[in-house]
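The protein record quoted for completeness.
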Amino acid sequence: MQGLGSHINIFNWLSERRLDNPLAYILMGLVGISLAFLFSQFGLTIGIAGVLGMIAIPAVIIAMFNHQLGISLMLVLGFVVHLLSKYTEAPVGTSMDGLLFIMLFGMLVQQSRKRDWSFAKSSISLWIALWIVYNLLQGLNPVAESRMA
């Protein structure tokens, strides 16, 4: 994807290169109509879930290959995880582990192409690897309090 470097403002990239054409206007209109339909037919909860999904899905896809954005998302999610878990039954903490796995998968895909493992010599990489192994072991733990964990 051209232009999605970490130093490029994503909003300028979208407005200058992708969203200034008739097809984009039609797609934005369809998105608006679909959101209006969600809110009117299914209520506030499903409508908000649709809006959040439209923001979260592209953010996670971009975070798969832009790890700076992924770490930022993890930090934000880490701060709001208790607030979100107060108002929903969704496994918000598990979503952080899922984002970590998606970023790991994106990193492995990138490394299969360019084969530059110099970043792995950092002590932070060791701690992240230990965290991933710990999470995987907790998923296999037969005496866990919750099967979600």
